[in-house]
């Protein structure tokens, strides 16, 4: 740290500033591995404790990430879609300048579970079409999607090329099923073995789980999805308008 010997900043802050500048300039591009602890100790002439403090701070800032058994890597910028209207994955990625692709894992007819039946307003056990896909952004697995459709409509969709044709586009443009509105439920979750395998992450990795039921005209549910997004790659943004202030009631 001879270049900063006159600085009053703590050593770990000086190292952090230097590494942050390299990340910002592209000298350390997204996805590349950081030099080893030993290399950083030698380069900056500081203690191993200082380097470890620096790395922890960079992790908290979201600039680097630890990949178990591999090392520390420069984190990719998070993808931040806006939740302002009902859109599909491909539409979201196009707005963000990302290339969206899909990989179909399974498509079949199954009896509706209690939760699926409730969301699609069907009796429990009614046959429905289940479709499992991995959605990718710029080639990186971002979301594992479980989609459930009423059987008659789902059998049509199931016959299409779901790796190149988004389900929302098929429903609206090919099968005359306009999508009017949707109900979202969101929660923090972790990757179970199936989700972890689909997204190429470790079991227990953070997952952003969205349950979305989309409705056609006359409030008819036509599409129920469980969307498992990688927590290390995604952040959602929305804008809320405040309604008229509510007057207190009672004495």
Number of strands: 8
Residue share in helix: 25-40%
CATH superfamily of the largest domain: Chorismate lyase-like
The number of domains is: 2
The proportion of residues in beta strands is 25-35%
CATH class wording of the largest domain: Alpha Beta
Structural class of the secondary elements? alpha+beta
Largest sheet: 6 strands, antiparallel
State mean pLDDT (0 to 100 scale). Answer: 90
Can you write the helix and strand succession as a string?
HHHEEHEHEEHHEHEE
* Poorly predicted regions: none
* Gross geometry: elongated
What's the number of helices?
8
CATH architecture of the largest domain: 3-Layer(aba) Sandwich
N-to-C span: 68 Å
- Give the strand order, joined by hyphens, for the main sheet: 3-4-5-8-7-6
CATH third-tier fold name of the largest domain: Chorismate lyase
């Amino acid at each position: 740290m001879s270049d900063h010997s006159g600085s009053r900043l703590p050593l770990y802050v000086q190292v952090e500033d230097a590494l942050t500048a390299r990340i910002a300039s592209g000298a350390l591009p997204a996805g590349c591995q950081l030099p080893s602890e030993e290399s950083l100790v030698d380069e900056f002439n500081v203690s191993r404790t200082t380097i470890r403090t620096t790395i922890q701070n960079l992790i908290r800032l979201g600039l680097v990430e630890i990949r178990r058994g591999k090392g520390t890597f420069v984190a990719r910028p998070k993808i931040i879609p806006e939740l302002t209207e009902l859109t599909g994955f491909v539409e979201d990625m196009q707005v963000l300048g990302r290339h969206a692709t899909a990989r179909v894992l399974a498509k079949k007819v199954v009896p509706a579970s209690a939760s699926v039946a409730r969301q699609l307003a069907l009796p429990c056990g009614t046959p429905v079409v289940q479709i499992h896909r991995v959605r990718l952004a710029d080639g990186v697995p971002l979301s594992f999607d479980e989609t459930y459709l009423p059987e008659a409509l789902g059998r049509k969709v199931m016959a299409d090329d779901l790796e190149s044709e988004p389900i929302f586009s098929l429903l609206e443009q090919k099968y005359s099923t306009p999508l009017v509105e949707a109900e979202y439920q969101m929660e923090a979750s972790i990757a179970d073995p199936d989700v972890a395998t689909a997204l190429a992450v470790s079991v227990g990795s953070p997952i952003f789980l969205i349950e979305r039921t989309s409705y056609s005209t006359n409030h008819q549910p036509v599409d129920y999805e469980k969307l498992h997004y990688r927590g290390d790659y995604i952040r959602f943004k929305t804008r809320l308008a405040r309604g008229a202030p509510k007057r207190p009631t009672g004495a």
